[in-house]
## 1
Amino acid sequence: MEYHIGVRTNQLAEAEKRCGARVAHCRWASGTLIKRLSMHPIVDFIKKELKRTSDQATAIGMQKYMKTDQPFYGVKTPVRKKIYKAATRAYPINSRKEYEDIIEELWGGPFREEMYQALEVAQNTRAFHGTESLPLYEKMIHSSPNWDTLDWLATRVIGSLIIEDRRLESKLIEWSESGNFWVRRASLLAHLKHKDETNFNLLAETILKLAHEEEFFIRKAIGWVLREYSYTNPRWVIEFVTNHQETLSSLSKREAMKHINKLGGCRT
């Protein structure tokens, strides 16, 4: 079952019709809707505010940009973040179960901005963002529909956990061998913000494992993570790219060297 939406008002009407007035939760996952009969107050608040601030023209543009059939409310990031902050002020999250239930309800919503709000909760609820919720984060990685949600999860939600507990690097190795290329992308991007705490041996191993792939989003991720690490260790990146000229794609090499080339190839 999919949403094929052409007009903003139809997006709302269709989603509500499919969910029903008494159904609180519709999961977008491989075209299947799973309905739940409960809704946390914070989820109800967020959904109502997203609907209230929705914009038809913006929604259509967002949907086209992401090349998806999943509907959008058309709520831009600054407004969406204000809604999230207001919701968490009004309804503080007091337990891990509550934290995970809220994330699951929002992640399963029919609109993309509801998934974004799930990620806000996952990332910013500091008391409960942690390795204990890794099984939930991993489910989200495996059900992420595109780069917008996947990259947020890998870099902002999961990346910091790897630093806290290096045993979780075994998950990155596992993800690098997944049949889902978005999951493989996550195995690269989880390193993105590690700076001088980067496990460059694991990063190099993962890059070389995936470098043969022709998938654009894998090649782009390889270049992106190398470019980000070049801010911390440009010499390592130069040597890595030089030593693997024949293995890395042109896209990956070009992205990797962007910052270094701006500095005139500085090796310091």
## 2
Amino acid sequence: MAVQVWIGEKPEHPNERRAIVALANGLDRLDGLYLILANFSVGGRNIDLVLIKQDAIFIVELKQCDGKIFGDVNGPWFVESANGERKRLNPGRKNPYNQVISYYYSLINFLNEHRTQFLSPQKATSVDFRTCKRLVVIAPTIQEGSQVETDWKVELKGLDELPAYLVTERSSEIDLSEEEMLAIPELLHCTRWNEVNSLLAGVLPRWDAIDSPFAEQAAAPAAAQVLYRYVDAQGRILLVSSERSTGPAARLRGRRARASDRLPSTRSPSTRYLAPRRRCSGSCESISGDLSKHALGATRNSPKGSRQGCSDPHF
């Protein structure tokens, strides 16, 4: 695998998760190993992203901005919306430039203190972590008309141009083996983000599945067969086993299953129509009974939204 994603904690905001997945997708097409370390703490600071490759380390402050960006080294940064309204980035905190500078010192101090734990004696004296690169990255892109002034210490990039930048940039003072690279997230107490790594490995079929509880179910080893409920274009309730949910089931012409849709089957794994999922005031007495015939008859023969012998909706 060309990319591995590690996290201290799972990013809270969907925009951050999507940005990390998009970056991993871009890097996965490249040769060599790339590590993405996201949302972890070091030296009392919570760092958005660190990207590690064989000959460079990049420290990143990631910002999601839907508008033009304005700012400089010392002053506040602003985002201007399409209607001209400006809002301050990081109100009450350092601007992105100064944030990534503080991340830089926290991380290189940690790496220098622990260098003998993951570098050979020869490399421990030659690798210079002061050459780690510092970036502010705007997701999804830096809009035309943005005006940000930085200096040589920090680069400003859009997320869309980041993979190409990572390929071309390197440091003559950093040369890490894969084993040494993989030791760094371990020392930082990061863990592999299995959902994203499963997406990269082709276990899951859709990149946007990372925002769905379905991704966690599909990425985990299946202890037993689980049936997922789908509604097709004709309004039928279909059951699809977890073994098929990453293939044709993912392309059914209805909505995707939700975690709340996951129910134990009331019949054999070959059942095609889902039994009512709760007690109703009609003839349905219990969800534990074999009620799939009732649901089947209502779906095929009754007007949409109705059930034979039952006035309550089942789904």
## 3
Amino acid sequence: MHIYLIEQKDKLGNVYDLLKGYGKIIHLKKNTKDISKYKELIQDKEDKIIGVAPAHIDYTFPLEFLKKVQNLKGIVTKSSWGHYIDLDYCKKHDIAVGNSPEANSQSVAEYAIWQMFCLARKLPLQLKSNFKVEISDKYEGVELAGKTMGVIGLGRIGRRIANIGKGLGMNVIYWNRGRKRTAFNYKKLESLLEESGFIFKCVETCKETNDLLNRKNLKLLKKDAYFISVFGGIGWGGEDEYILIDMVENGRLAGFSIENDHQAKAKIKKSYKGNIFIPAAYAWHTKETHARYNEIWAKGITGIIKGKRVNRLV
């Protein structure tokens, strides 16, 4: 068995030790994000598993290239999101696909809460004024205790955000495609959008959620509400982020925050009018997350080799 790892060498940590004895480990990392340039994957006719950190292939694994990889037994993505891989094709051709869930849950949740604090205390406006003190309604912040937090998607990350919100004294409500066994109150999506002061979008970006939030239902948001997009960045989110930006710029929404895109495809301006905060895509990027990712990633790879279902998407 050949185990191909597409990741920065300095981020592999103890992965070599964890995979020792399971097959020949081959590290690949080129100065390109185009996976079709990884000709080794096509030329090698041995049984193989590909472990990939998706940022290094631009979150893109074209079906045309996938079809050319011979004797592929599995793909394990070093991320919770695996929808950049054609899962239907893999299922039809007995190619196991695994992800690395929960490794970044705490890190991403904390980053989202930080985004909330930044909006609540008007950090984007403070930055634009170079921190000049001006006692006016423009810079007046809001306290979080007693406010309603609406979490869209109560998965691993959404639940952590909800728990932190509860600890801050917020009234937490949620929407999910299926109701969860939780003390938090379930609301229909439209009701959540109408009632919440701080909305956190925590659903995966995929075809099933592509139009979950749209021009029609985003208009239900209160004028004094704040919207934080947690999954993905500009150009990735299931919500129409440009509508939300327009709403803030025209005074129809109190604030909006979303991570900067992981790639260069997003149409990002240097500056936006109003309380709009677009930080770099570092939500997952902590020392602890990298260590957890390596452990979970390696378990997914060895699970496929052992014939066990470990964090499997397919």
